[in-house]
Design goal:
The protein is α+β, with helices and mostly antiparallel strands and 359 residues long. The protein has two domains: 60-133, no CATH class; 137-354, no CATH class. The protein contains nine helices and eleven strands. The protein has a four-stranded antiparallel beta sheet, with no helix packed on it. It has a three-stranded antiparallel beta sheet with strand order 4-3-11, with no helix packed on it. It has a two-stranded antiparallel sheet with strand order 1-2. Strand 1 and strand 2 form a beta hairpin. Helix 8 packs antiparallel against helix 9 (317-354). The chain is globular, with a radius of gyration of 24 Å. The chain starts with a helix and ends in a 5-residue tail after the last helix.
Amino acid sequence: MKYFAVLFCSITFSFSVIASEEGHEKEDFNVSEMIMHHVKDAHEWHLWTLNDKHVSIYLPIILYTDEGLKVFSSSHFYHNEPSHEGENHYYKGTGPAEGYAMFHEKIYKLDDSGILHFEGGHVHGNIKPLDFSITKNVVSLFIGSFLVFIIMFTCARYYKKNGSVAPKGLSKFIEPLILFVQDEIAKTNINEKKYKKFVPFLLTIFFFIWINNLLGLIPIFPGSANLTGNITVTFFLAFLTLILILVNGNKNYWGHIFAPPGVPKALLPIMIPIEIVGIFTKPFALMIRLFANITAGHIIILALISIIFINKNAAWGALSVPMALFISILELLVAALQAYLFAMLSALFIGAAVEESHH
C-alpha cells in the first residue's frame, strides 16, 4: 500500500507543478527557480493552482519595526502584480503591509519614494525589520512535534492502562522502535550506568527527525515542507547535542582535550587547539549531513519532474515520473536512515564525553 501512496503523491505533485506553470507558458521554464521555490521556506502554504487561480494557506507575518509590532496576513504580499527594478521583481504590500515589500521571501521596508533598491541582484539600502513570522517550516515543525507528542502519549496511556502486556495497535509498532533506540543506540554507545539519562533525548530526536522527514516527502498539505532540509533546524538539533556534550563531559573527557595522553608537551600548543576545534566539528558534521541529504533528495525529485517542462512534452512523464517514484521510495529509506544516523552519532559523541577512564 505504501508504494501506491508514493505513486499517487508523485503523480499529484507532477500535476500540481503543471498547473502552476500553465499561466506562464510564454516564459521560459526556469528549473533552478522552481526547485528553490519548493525547497526554501515561505510565508504561505501553497496548495494548488487551477485556471490561473492560486489556492494557498496564508500564514501570519509578524514584524517588529520602528513603529512597533505589525501583525498581518501574508496575503497582502502574494499574487499581486510585481514591481520591477531592473531584472529583479518584488511584491509590494497592500493594506496593513503597505510600505513594505517581499523579495525572495525576505521582507524589507520601502524608502520614502516607495522603492526597493538593488545592487548586484541583492537588496541594498533598505531596512530589513525583525521577522518573527509563522512560516511554512514553522507550521510544519508544529505539525511534526504534535504528531510525536500524540504518538508517544498514546503509547504511554496504553501501558499505563494495561500494564506490562503484549502491545496492540500503535504501541505494537512503536515499542520495537523505542527498544531499538534504547538498546542499540543509547546502551551500545553510552556507558551502561549512564545511558538511561540520555534515552529521552535520543528518542525525541529520532522520532522528530524521522516523522518530519516523512512529512517532507508528501507533496500536498500537511506535507511538502522541507523542514529537516532547513539549515537552521539542523543547526539547532546539532546544537542540542553539543550542549549535552559540554554539560555532561567528565574529567576524563576534558583531560583528553587539554592534556592528550601520550603527547609530548612541546606539541600541546598544536594539539589543544585541534582538540577544541574537534568539539565543534562533530555537531557541525551532524548539521551538514542531515541538511545535505534531505535537501538533495528533494532536489533530485524536482529535477526529474522538471524534465517534462524542459522538453515541453507531457510524454516525458513516462520517464520522469517512474524515476521520481523510484527516488521517492528510496527517500523512505533515507528518511529513517538519517534519523538513525543523527541519533546514533549523537549517542556516540555523548558516550565519548561521559566515558570513564580505563586507567
